[in-house]
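Lecture notes, part 5. Sequence design as translation. It can be helpful to think of inverse folding as translation between two languages: the language of shapes and the language of residues. The source text, in structure tokens, appears below.
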């Protein structure tokens, strides 16, 4: 499994969450992407942009709380983390 690819996908879903006015889900997904990759990859321009927009939409405490939940992500729990955004 390519964890960097999974991280990119989660970043895209986080951006979708922002477009759906779900910044808390975006914060959780951004943290999940970092957890899956095992590192924060600030070299990705989209990550920097999406994170900045997410932080702007939330208070620091809201962002920290959502990110705390996102950091618990594992490859087995990704479906749970994306379900709120990717509803059929």
């Amino acid at each position: 499994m390519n964890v960097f690819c999974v991280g990119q996908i989660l970043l895209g879903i986080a951006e979708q969450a922002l477009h759906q006015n779900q910044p808390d889900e975006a914060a959780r997904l951004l943290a999940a992407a970092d957890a899956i990759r095992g590192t924060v990859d600030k070299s990705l321009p989209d990550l920097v942009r999406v994170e900045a927009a997410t932080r702007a939409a939330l208070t620091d405490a809201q962002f920290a709380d959502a990110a705390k939940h996102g950091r618990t992500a594992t490859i087995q729990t990704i479906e749970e983390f994306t379900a709120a955004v990717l509803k059929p």
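The translated text above is only one of many valid answers, since several sequences can fold into similar shapes. The two ends are 26 Å apart (CA to CA).
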